[in-house]
Amino acid sequence: MTPVAVRDLRPTQITVGMREVALKRQMLRSQSARKTGTFLGTHMVPVVLGPKKRNYVTDHHHLARALLEEGIGDVLVTVMSDLSDLDKDAFFFVLDNRAWMHPFDENGKRRGYNAIPKTMAGLVDDPYRSMAGELRRQGGFAKDTTPFSEFLWADFLRRRIDRDAVAKNFDKAMKEALNLAKAKDADYLPGWCGPTSD
Known about the structure:
Blueprint: E1 2-5, E2 15-16, H1 18-30, H2 33-42, E3 45-49, E4 55-57, H3 61-69, E5 74-82, H4 88-97, E6 124-125, H5 127-137, H6 149-158, H7 163-168, H8 170-182
Parallel strand pairs: 2-6, 3-5
Antiparallel strand pairs: 1-5, 3-4
Helix pairs in contact: 1-3, 5-6
């Protein structure tokens, strides 16, 4: 466990759901500084040390972005692996092969490693990632340990719900998402909890 400046954290993905970030910010603002400190003590940000000993975040990107936007200076990290001896290309190749990165843009298209922002402030909004987070909270699927499982759900929704419909009426789009989540078409996704015949 090491305190690291939030502004120095490096993402390992291109997008976040900004509605998710807003919820984290709201939670941080609604509690006392003491409670926030306790919360952050139990929600350490997992990182992999990369070239130049930089901290590359492998989870909790939404929290890190919220902390940055709320002006919270430091966060505790837990180092999952020290790959700082690798050159940049080898480092990203290892991250990719260990499922420690998600180089997909807001349209669900895989991009080159250089498309990943250098700071949390550079993360781009993917409204379908926000839908996936809300879908999980509403019981559409169960929390799962599969890396980037909510991005898999986001991609599923992206292929079935029009982006304009999401932008115009998020709540209505969520009703459609809940129905889609229970369908047989979604049974391959991590945490699926639709009806079964047994």
